[in-house]
Amino acid sequence: MQDTAPRATTRTWNTVTYDRMDGAVIQIREHTVTLTRTAAGIEAVVDGQACDLRHAVNILRGATTTTVTHEVLEAAPIGKARAARLHRLMARAGVASGEHYAFAAAALDRAVYSLAALTERDARAVWDFLTFTFPHIKAAA
Question: What is the 3-state secondary structure (H, E, C) of the chain?
């Protein structure tokens, strides 16, 4: 089963870490940690300075408390119902059922494995490509 829930592209936490010795708090450390998903991988920033991902993750794992303060999510997917409608429209236009994903991939210029996982912007691009390729389908919608 494919998870179509939107993922975070950026997430920021405020952390508080209590360093203890013999049960007594000897130091309180506070950090702001931001992780950002990029094409090159995950980038980390701690207290406004770029840093190694392992260092940022160690701060998050070792923190006494963590609070998410900011989050940017990917666009939400269109879901199964809208994807089924898009499949029906492609079939009405004359796109063979085995070619729906290839048609969507041609419209988006990238691989498509699930129409339900498309974003609204992607679905509109596929629809525009469909109506450009098969102008009569506009009336069927």
Answer: CCCCCCCEEEEEEEEEEEEEECCEEEEEEEEEEEEEEECCEEEEEECCEEECHHHHHHHHHHCCEEEEEEEEECCCECHHHHHHHHHHHHHHHCCCHHHHHHHHHHHHCCCCCCCCCCEHHHHHHHHHHHHHHCCCHHHHC
How many whole angstroms from its chain centre is CA 133? Answer: 29
pTM tops 0.70: no
Q: In sequence order, what are the residues at sequence separation of 6 or more whose Cβ sits closer than 8 angstroms to the Cβ of residue 1?
A: none
For the CA atoms of the chain, what is the radius of gyration?
A: 23
Residues 15-43 have pLDDT tens digits of 999 999 998 989 999 999 999 998 889 99
CA angle 17/47/50 to nearest 5° reads 125
